[in-house]
Amino acid sequence: MRVKAYDRGSPVKEGEAQIGIVVQRNQFPPEFLGGPYTQTISENLPNNTGIYTLRGRDQDLQGELRYEVLGISPAPLYFRVNPTAGTVFTRDDLKKDRGLTYTLQVALYDSGNPEERVFTEMTIFVNRNENAPTFSQELYQRTVLENSGLGGLLLTVQATDEDERDVLRYELTDDETCAEFFYVNPDTGALHLKKLLTETSRARFEVRPP
Ligand SMILES: [Ca+2]
Ligand SMILES: [Ca+2]
After folding, report:
1. Is residue 6 included in any domain, yes or no?
2. Which of 127, 147, 163 lies at the terminal end of a domain, its last residue?
3. Least packed by Cβ within 10 Å: which of 17, 22, 118, 172?
4. Is residue 12 part of a domain?
5. Where are the alpha helices (DSSP H) in 32-105?
6. Which numbered ligand comes closest to the C-alpha of 129?
């Protein structure tokens, strides 16, 4: 646009200028990058531990992005998000609950006028250890010949754990002589001879729970 000013003198004289108006519009909503999000954590995490940082952007950002937890219950009781950094933190003792999966719904706002927003969900899996492993039998027994060869499979112990994600490992816990003559595969529970029994006069080996 042009604008003109003139006097009322005689003769009339005038000056001219240009006017430029820039209209700032909020054309683009913000967006989350890389979602949907998942994270697996331990139930033992202390309060205020950062577990993940959400990332957002806005093509015509005029101020700052703002993150806010909106749901979904009970996730907001245990998790919060830093409004400017987007980092998700624990906010309470997870042992107060027994949930294994939490869905945290987070909104992202730009600072436009009017404000635009977008939502995302973060799924948080919590590892809990509520059950001790149990063996399939209280006693495993096997008689072997004194001259049994090394490495042969004597028996296999087997335990299960009701905590789905727990991975079990086996270990001999009794006296040193047992550990000297026998070996248990930590992954499979298979018990093998690792030293010839002719090298001891002992007739009975017992491995008991601690
Ligand atoms: Ca925007
Ligand atoms: Ca367990």
Report:
1. no
2. 127
3. 22
4. no
5. 75-78
6. 2
Output the CA 123–ligand 1 centroid distance in Å.
Answer: 26
Q: Is the dihedral of CA 69, 70, 72, 78 positive or negative?
A: positive
Q: 161 and 97 in one domain?
A: no
The residue segments making up the domain with residue 69 are: 31-127
- Measured from the alpha carbon of residue 62, the closest ligand is 1
Rounded to the nearest angstrom, the distance between the alpha carbon of 49 and the centre of ligand 2 is 24
Does the N-terminal peptide bond of residue 114 adopt cis geometry, omega within 30 degrees of 0? yes
CA dist 169 and 121 (Å) reads: 35
pLDDT in tens, 147-197: 888 988 999 999 999 887 788 999 888 777 788 899 999 999 999 999 999
Q: Of the candidates 111, 127, 143, which is a domain's last residue?
A: 127
Ligand 2 centroid, distance to 32 Cα (angstroms) = 36
Residue 109 CA to ligand 1 centre (angstroms): 8
Cβ-count burial of 88 within 10 angstroms (0-12 exposed, 13-18 middle, 19+ buried)?
buried
Q: How far is the CA of 57 from the centre of ligand 1 (A)?
A: 9
Which residue has better confidence, 68 or 151?
A: 68
Distance 43 CA to ligand 1 centre (A): 37
Q: Measure CA 22 to chain center.
A: 46
**124 CA to centre of ligand 1 in angstroms:** 28
